[in-house]
Each structure stands twice: as C-alpha cells, then as structure tokens.
Amino acid sequence: MKKNKKEEKDEKNIKKIKAVKVKKINKNKELETVKVETKEETKKEEKVDSKIEQKTEVKEEKKIEPKVDLKIEKKDKIKELKNIEVEPHKRSKKLNIILWIFVFIFTIIFLTSCGIWSYYMFETYMTHRENCFKEMDVLKSRNSLAFNEFNEEVEYLTTWTYQELLDKLVDSSKLVPSTRVELFYNGERITEDSGMLFNMVGEIELEVHLTKKYNYQLVKSYSENIENVKVTKINVKDTIFPKITGVSNKTITVGDKIDVKSGVSASDEREGNIEVVVEGSVNTAKAGTYTIRFIATDKNGNRTTQEMKVTVKEKVTAKKSTSSKKTTSSKKTTSSKSSSSSKKSSSSSSKPSASTKSGRLSIAKTEAKKVAKQIFKSGMSDMQKAEAIADWLYTNVDPQFEQGTEEYKKNFGNEAYAAFVLKKAACSGFCKAAMLLCTEGKLTCKHINANKWTHQWLQVKIDGKWLELDGQLGMVGDLY
After folding, report:
1. pTM listed for this prediction
2. Which of 214, 237, 260 is at the close of a domain?
3. 228, 176 Cβ separation under 8 angstroms
4. Is the pLDDT of residue 437 over 90?
5. 60 assigned to some structural domain
6. Domains of the chain: total
C-alpha cells in the first residue's frame, strides 16, 4: 500500500531528529575530552606558577624579613608543601639516600661502641689478672719466711716424731693460713705415724713442701697451688765407738802356751757384739815383751784399738852348792833381808797417803809416768800420742755419772787419782788424768770448762792447731 504523504513526512522528520541528536552527543564527547585536557594543562600551569611564586616569596622573605607570626608561617609552609606533589621516582631516590646515610652512621656508632666496650673489658681483665698474680707472689714470699735454718748434727739411730721434725724445720707461726705442710725423705712422704729414724751416717736431704691453694675469678673460676719447696741437709754422725773388754797384760815363761784372744770381746751399743781383729803374735820360745793390738770397728767406721803386753820370761833352774856356799848364802840372805826390811820401812814412811789431796795427786803422777812408759813409743807424733792417751782412758777407766752422791765424793771422781787408781772417774777426773799424760808426752793442752758443772774436755795443740781430746769418748779431733 502506498503511504500517505503525511506519514512520509513524519518519518523524514524523525530521521532528522535522530541525526541531530547523534551530532549533539558526539559534540558533547569532544567537549568533555577537551575539558579534561584543558584541566590537566591548567593544573600543570598552576603547579609551575606555584613553584615560581614560592621561590619568589622565599627570596622576598630573605630580603625583607617581615615580622610574621612563626606558627602561621609554619602552617602555611606545611600547606604549601602538601600542595606540592613530588613525582614518585624522585621521592624513592631521596628516601634511599637518607636510609643509607642513617645505616652508615648507625654502623659506625655501633662498631665504635663495640670497640670501646671490648677494650674496656680487656683492660679490666688484664689488670685483675695482674693483681691476682701479684697476690700469689706475696703469699709465696710470706710462706718462704716460715722455713727454719737447721744446722745441728743428729746422732745415728736417733728417732724423731713427725711433730718434732716439723717444729725444727718449719715455723708454723709464720705460715699463711690453710697452708699444707709435707715432709719427704728419698721421695717418700713422712707421715705423722711413721716419724723419722736416722739410720744412715752422713749427709741426708729432707724436702719440705708448703702448698697454699689460691682461688680467683676472671672470666671463670680458677684454682692454683702456690708451692714453696726447700731442701734441708742434715748431718748424721755416729759418735759412739765400740768398747773392747777383757784386755790385760800377761806374763808367761818360755814354753808356756797362751791364747791372747781368750776373754777378749768387743761390743757396740747399737750393733751388740762385734768382731775383734788381733794384730801381732807372741813367740813363746823366746824371752821378751810382745805387743798385741786388738781392733774393733763398727759398720759406720768407728774404730777402737787396745794393746796388750805379753812378757815371756826365762825358766829358773836350781843349782847344787857346797855346805860352805850354803852358809855364806844364808848369811847373805839374812843380811839382804835385814837391808830390804830397812828399805821397806823407810819407803813406807816416805810413801804419800791417799787421805790427802796432795798425796792423791802425787800418787796419780807416779801412775801417769807408768802409763806413759806403756803407751808412748819412740818416734810417735803428737797426734799419735794424743790418740794413745784417749784410747787408754777410754778402755781402762769407766765413766762415773752419779755425781753429787756420797759414792762420788768417796771415789774422788773429779781427781786424776780416781782415773789412775780406782779406774772410775767423772769427766773432770778424765781431763786431769789426760793432762798428766800430756805432760809426760810433752804435749801442750788446756782444760775446757774447768770447775764448771757441765761436760769437760781437753784441747791439745797439734801441728799448730787446737784439737779436742775427750777421754770418755776415746776420741781426738774437731769434736765440739
């Protein structure tokens, strides 16, 4: 069907209207894009302008320096800074630089503080350590003052307890408190139960160990032993000599038998009976005087000698005679008897009495001459004479110790008479008898501790040197 003219017009009008609307929409879009671009450009321009204004304002402020309230000025600056938008890559670079600077400064401060702290700790450690060592040296020097000087000689086979030995070697009052004391002999420790027996003659060594435990603190706890060691030398002597008994002079006739060792024995206080060595022999077929020497030696080398005189006489033979000879001989005998009796009476009247001190001294002098003839031989040196005197007194005279008693007074123990006649005397009697024998032997001597209530002995000058002679010990030498 054909459309009406009106309908066609209407359709044309509608199309026109739609086309106009589309054009308007497109124009609006273009306008919006243009607006956006213009806005962005205006923003950029505003930013640039604001920066320029800020710079100019800062310059002006520096020049003019107006008096403005600081609080308001700070607030304005903060607002302006907030308004400034920094690009993101520029912000990250600045932050990184600041962070690196902060880390660098922090590391320097940290390392410096660590170095200072470690140096301080090292110095304190070294000073404390040095102070500890100084204190240890002081304790060691204090303990070294506790050692005693030991110079005395010890008699062979003497026994000391542990406490006696400790008191002689260490002064306990000078020890540092809690110091341990140990004594050693030949590497073995001397205990309180064992003590010390000096069973060897000569010089022995004892070790004294002082140990002090010292605790100190450094990084951790430490403990050290402060040790002081001293070696003490002790001289052990055996001054007791063997004693020979049973030796006496004998007289026999030619052809008789004799055993010179019969009844002779030797003993030592510590070893008991010891062997006797005999030197010399007797020819019983020939008349004469023979000397036999007996020698006893202990294991420490102490030697005692004693001599025996054996006299061998000729046999007496009977002779026949006439009666006239008998009568004459009888007359001679009667005359000789009368003369001898007269001599005896005269001698008895001149013989000194033992009831007086002077009489006892004269008796001792005559006995000293007899003994001197026995013990002194031609060609003997002064030392041999002194040894002979000491040997004779030791073997023939017994010591008397009960001094001050009635028996001592009756025995005249402090006189030479007691030694020569009674064969028992005190040390003063030994000395006086030895002086008489020295006079007979032409030896220079002097009496030590005479008239004193203590032990006495002689000093004999031999080869320009004074040596001790002790008859009770039977010894000559550097004794005291």
Report:
1. 0.41
2. 237
3. no
4. yes
5. no
6. 3
